[in-house]
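wait is this the right file?? whatever heres the structure
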């Protein structure tokens, strides 16, 4: 069975193809080893010109979130799963202009018998905790971002996917994640909050469930939809965006 990776690649940056040009590559299995994880964090810190390890930890951790959602979509569409074992997936970095972006390369993309989607989440908990340990942060820096991100992807995918059976299966699998008692605080549970978008007038944008840490780099700024912004600062940013000639 041929797998359609178009949505997964466009929205989750996961593909069977190598990125080009390749700047940096590491097997996901490296995230089980503290010294190799520190090395990866350091290299990403250099590429981002980041202040510390908070941004690299956030970005690497959220690439594993993309693995979970890619599996969710594969199971919803095909009733089977991809091999998301750490030895079968690689983190590949390319530059978008001067901006580093992490993609996930999957080697063997043959479909296999599906296991409960929660098992993949449990499997990836250890490398996520290793990322956090190596960066001297709490795993919640990564996990707290899951809520808004899964809500955004769900809105997007259910608009993209026209097959009602696939939509229903996706929602059923998502409910399994939301009802999983593995976590003390389930990161997939999030009630979306919206604000008026200054980028597309008349439209709304979702408040993030946690800071993505992109402000912790050279010339970095907090996102307009960062939950840590005060209303005063957000309104100042809105005025700046609305009067910007680049808008």
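ok assuming it is, sequence goes like this
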């Amino acid at each position: 069975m041929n797998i359609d990776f178009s949505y997964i690649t466009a929205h989750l940056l996961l593909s069977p193809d190598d990125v080009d040009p390749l700047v940096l590559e590491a097997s996901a299995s490296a995230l089980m080893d503290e010294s190799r994880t520190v090395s990866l964090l350091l290299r990403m810190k250099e590429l981002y010109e980041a202040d510390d390890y908070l941004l690299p930890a956030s970005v690497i951790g959220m690439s594993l979130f993309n693995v979970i959602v890619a599996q969710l979509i594969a199971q919803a569409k095909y009733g089977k799963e991809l091999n998301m074992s750490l030895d079968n997936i690689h983190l590949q970095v390319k530059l978008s202009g001067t901006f580093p972006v992490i993609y996930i390369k999957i080697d063997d993309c043959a479909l296999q018998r599906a296991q409960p989607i929660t098992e993949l989440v449990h499997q990836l908990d250890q490398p996520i905790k290793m990322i956090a340990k190596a960066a001297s942060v709490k795993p919640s820096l990564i996990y707290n971002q899951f809520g808004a991100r899964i809500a955004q992807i769900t809105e997007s995918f259910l608009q993209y996917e026209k097959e009602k059976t696939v939509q229903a299966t996706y929602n059923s699998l998502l409910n399994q994640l939301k009802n999983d008692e593995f976590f003390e605080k389930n990161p997939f549970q999030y009630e979306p909050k919206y604000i008026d978008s200054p980028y597309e007038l008349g439209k709304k944008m979702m408040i993030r469930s946690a800071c993505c840490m992109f402000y912790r780099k050279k010339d970095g700024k907090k996102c307009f939809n960062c939950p840590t912004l005060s209303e005063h600062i957000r309104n100042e940013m809105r005025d700046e965006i609305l009067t910007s000639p680049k808008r």
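Helices lie at 6-12, 34-48, 54-78, 117-135, 140-143, 146-160, 164-178, 231-243. so i think its the right one actually
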